[in-house]
Amino acid sequence: MTDPDRSRIGLFVGILLVAAVALVIIAASVDVSPIALAPAYMFSPMVAGLAVCLSRDIPLSDVGLRRGRLRWLAIAAVLALPLIGLTLAFALAVPGVDFDPTATPVPGLELPSGLLGVAVAAGLALVLGATINAIFAFGEEFGWRGYLLWELAPWGFWKASFAIGALWGIWHTPVIVAGYNYPSFPYIGVLAMTIACLSFSPVYTYVVVRAKSVLAAALLHGVFNGSAGLVVVYATADEAVLEELVASPVGAAGVLAFGAAAIAIAVLDTPTLSRKSLSGYRA
């Protein structure tokens, strides 16, 4: 099997670096936080992936731009909800973190209190996450679990997943330093986000391999983003370290939940990852 091409990877990473620098410069020039420009920044991995594929004659279907297996696309969309539920359970198990039954996860929309409200909010997160959010998530995922997964497939499931997870986490640096996700810990937050992405990545790789489509990762990512706020609003703490670094979907609770899923994959069903195994990919 052909090894990953360093020149293609260099082009991909180079474009991401240019996008990160441009984000910071543009935000400073118009006097806004980089977080305000994050929706546009989310598409930089897709731009980088497209640039590599189109300039190096890599068919887009080879890197996962296909419908894939519908059953696994559905599983990918729903999978975020039990993982967020597990994250919430881990968060509430931490001393000093409490469940707020009066929380309003959707501003302006009155939901039932208690666990019924959580269930209704989860349903809304699934619908919005698998539609609107998934469009923005695709901007990331075509780069991460589309082109880059295809490129690194010769490394195998675990090495490719962790390599992508590390780059994925570091890519967040401009918005994390600006206060995204960890406003009280902007620099420690870069490390925390990278650890979170490392724990998430095998699960994302798994659904793409099973669905044979990068759309699976976009659906999982979209619903995760849409439902992650449930942990933030329902699990409350008086200390910033607990709220941001521990009882958070991108903190220790989320790492434990996705880490448990990764262990389950390792023990029960680690798939073979190769360009050929992804169906339609060249070996």
UniProtKB/TrEMBL annotation:
UniProt domain CAAX prenyl protease 2/Lysostaphin resistance protein A-like: residue ranges: 126-226
InterPro entries noted in UniProt: MmRce1-like, Rce1/LyrA-like_dom
Entry-linked Pfam families: Rce1-like
GO biological process, one term: CAAX-box protein maturation
Residue spans crossing the bilayer: 9-30, 36-58, 70-94, 114-139, 186-207, 214-237, 249-268
GO terms for MF: endopeptidase activity; metallopeptidase activity
Keywords linked to the UniProt accession: Hydrolase, Membrane, Metalloprotease, Protease, Transmembrane, Transmembrane helix
Classification via PANTHER family: PROTEASE, PROTEASE-RELATED
Name recorded for this polypeptide: CPBP family intramembrane metalloprotease
